[in-house]
Design a protein that fits this description.
CATH superfamily of chain A: Thiamin diphosphate (ThDP)-binding fold, Pyr/PP domains
Helix content of chain B: 25-40%
Low-confidence stretches of chain A: none
Distance between the termini of chain B: 47 Å
Number of strands of chain B: 12
Mean pLDDT of chain B: 94
Radius of gyration of chain B: 20 Å
CATH architecture of chain A: 3-Layer(aba) Sandwich
Number of helices of chain B: 13
Shape of chain A: globular
CATH topology of chain A: Rossmann fold
CATH architecture of the largest domain in chain B: 3-Layer(aba) Sandwich
Helix content of chain A: 40-55%
Low-confidence stretches of chain B: none
Number of domains of chain A: 1
Largest interface: A-B, 32 and 28 residues
Oligomer: heterodimer
Structural class of chain B: alpha/beta
CATH class of the largest domain in chain B: Alpha Beta
Strand content of chain B: 15-25%
Strand content of chain A: 5-15%
């Protein structure tokens, strides 16, 4: 097992806190991309609280590991983590989505410390990540680049352009994730346009493919560590996840791609999260 | 010339715009190890391959994948490099517009785009390869500087100056067979400052790119007709030189803009915005490609067909000289 019991306990505590922050921000912001923020949480928590070589006091440190949230609509969940890590005063998140706030739904790297690229337009993140990883190779830098994609954005042709060039340049310093929650705005991915077999698709593009349960910290940690040992090709970790994870009335419902919460719904959501971690 | 970088090529006026560009970029690459050249299967056509032959480790050919060309360039800029990207203008400005806008301009990254085959310079190729919309698109992107050099020498100056200017820059050049207008590089090129190609007091021709040469030819003809013609080479369309435009309004009271671009939203529109906002009246005509897809043909024939060559300019100037600046209260003929 790559993670110790203490690691897992700590990651669970952080994930619980982040999920509650996501619910709180969704409530105060008047709405948010809550479903996908909850599905990506365990991937980002594992990276930020176990693996990333970063210093929140030096967000522009040039040797830091890079994180590109290609599914930029997960900005709400990402901001919750960056705030907890101390990149900025967490109290600022009360202004999420508000006029003049540094925090819009999709984070702006010129306004949000810790945000390594401004994303939100789907199909852009992997190309930027390939550029960052290629830059590290060319300059002899040791940092790793992590890119988290949504599954719906795999419909974008630019993802596959970047996949070709990433494999061609043997970017073994690049690890990408797919938050495979199987839902996009209009419904299930496999009903709108078939994405599977994703393993075969990425493998045929020359990537190392790992497929895991995206809510199992040991599986995520094991895949991240495995990717660090793969030579001469980039790795994609396809994480099977649940959109709206931990909130019973949101789980696996595409209507919760974006939504608002009244105080009753917020309280129910927070209670669901408490219950989930009490059983974990 | 901007401070810092310099370039020097013997007989640059004998080379095409793209040839000068390729050689100048290679010279700049020797001085600045952070420069990376990138293209999408157009290394030879755009001449960026000249850099690649000299610095293969700093040359990235993406294959035919323009969207990722600009996305990966953004990533390399984030990694501290200075990517110079070349493809045809139609792909940079239209196919990949959102990648240029969101990945490069929105993040205000240090990426220089040198787009070739712009306008109707690839006239025989048809509208899939023409680009009469790029000035309009690029000047609407915040943070973007837009430069349209008149010839090879000015391309060398523009590429060099762009390296010293932080942030995104779009430089638009032709296919490469356009004749030169400058004979020396030492004429004080500065981004954002129009070059006065000749002084005049009766009318001002404001032009950029290949139309600068056409304006110079037209001015010689008009001179024989007794007209004193000022020519402003407005190589930087954004940020535009307001001072030079308003000086021309005040001193010549007649302005013709000429561009190898849709007559909507390009140089002429940028000049018109300055004039209208100033509240000062002058007689004004925009010459450019009409709002339609261009016929197939050799560029020189097309310049004539669309009346953006010397003959077309002379015709437009003659018409404008006869037009009075109206001060009447009658709006029937305007509406």
């Amino acid at each position: 097992m790559p993670l110790t019991q203490e690691d897992i306990k700590r990651l669970q505590e952080k994930a619980k806190e982040i999920r509650k922050t996501i619910v709180d921000i969704t409530f105060t912001a008047g709405g948010g991309h809550i479903g996908g923020s909850l599905s990506q949480t365990d991937i980002l928590v594992t990276l930020y609280y176990k693996y990333l070589n970063i210093d929140p006091k030096k967000p522009q440190w040039e040797d830091r590991d890079r994180v590109i949230l290609s599914k930029g609509h997960g900005g709400l969940g990402w901001a919750a983590i960056l705030g907890e890590k101390g990149y900025f005063d967490r109290a600022l998140l009360k202004n999420f989505n508000k006029t003049g706030s540094p925090f819009g739904m999709h984070l702006d790297m010129l306004k949000v410390p810790g945000c390594d690229a401004s994303t939100g337009s789907l199909g852009h993140g992997l190309g930027i990540a390939v550029g960052l990883a290629l830059g590290a190779k060319m300059s002899g830098k040791k940092y790793r680049t992590y890119c988290v994609m949504g599954d719906g954005e795999l419909c974008e042709g630019s993802v596959w352009e970047a996949a070709i060039i990433g494999a061609f340049h043997k970017l073994d310093n690049l690890t990408a994730f797919v938050d495979r929650n199987k839902l996009m705005i209009d419904g299930p991915t496999e009903e709108i346009t078939q994405l599977e077999n994703l393993n075969d698709k990425f493998a045929s593009f020359g990537w190392e493919v790992l497929r895991i349960d995206g809510h199992d910290f040991n599986a995520i940690g094991g895949a991240v560590e495995k990717a660090q040992t793969i030579k001469a090709k980039p790795t994609i970790i396809i994480c099977d996840t649940v959109k709206g994870k931990c909130v019973d009335y949101m789980e696996n419902d595409y209507k919760w791609h974006y939504g608002g919460l009244d105080s009753d719904m917020r309280d129910r959501a927070l209670a669901c999260i408490d219950k989930y971690y009490a059983q974990a | 010339m901007a401070e810092g970088m310099t370039w020097s090529i013997e007989e640059a006026d004998k080379l095409t715009q793209a040839e000068v560009y390729g050689q100048v970029l290679t010279q700049l690459g020797e001085k600045d190890p952070k420069i990376i050249a990138m293209t999408a299967d157009l290394a030879k056509s755009t001449k960026i391959g000249t850099f690649g032959q000299k610095f293969p480790d700093r040359f990235i050919n993406m294959g035919i994948a323009e969207n990722s060309l600009f996305g990966v360039a953004a990533g390399l800029a984030l990694a501290g490099y200075k990517p110079v990207v070349s493809t045809f203008a139609v792909f940079a400005a239209l196919r990949s517009a959102e990648f240029v806008r969101t990945d490069i301009c929105y993040q205000n990254l240090n990426v220089k785009i040198i787009a070739t085959h712009a306008g109707i310079s690839f006239g025989q190729a048809g509208s899939t390869h023409h680009c009469t919309e790029d000035i309009a698109v690029m000047r609407s992107f915040a943070n973007m500087t837009v430069i349209v050099p008149a010839d090879g020498i000015e391309t060398g100056n523009a590429v060099t100056a762009a390296m010293d200017l932080p942030g995104p820059v779009y430089i638009r050049i032709g296919r490469g067979f356009e004749p030169p207008v400058n004979t020396t590089a030492d004429y004080g090129f500065q981004i954002g400052k129009a070059v006065t190609m000749r002084e005049g007091k009766d009318i001002t021709l404001i032009c950029c790119g290949v139309t600068v040469l056409q304006a110079v030819r037209a001015a010689k003809i008009l001179e024989t007709q007794g007209l004193s013609v000022r020519i402003l080479n407005m190589h930087t369309v954004k940020p535009i030189d307001r001072e030079a435009i308003l000086k021309a309004v005040m001193e010549t009271r007649r302005i013709v803009t000429i561009e190898e671009h849709n007559v909507l939203c390009g140089l002429g529109s940028a000049v018109a915005e300055v004039i209208v906002e100033s509240g000062k009246a002058c007689a004004f005509t925009k010459l450019g490609i009409p709002d339609q897809y261009v016929i197939v043909g050799y560029p020189e024939d097309l310049y004539n067909h669309y009346k953006i060559d010397a003959d077309g300019i002379v015709e437009a100037v003659s018409a404008l000289m006869g037009r009075e600046i109206e001060a009447d209260e009658n709006w029937d003929d305007e509406t």
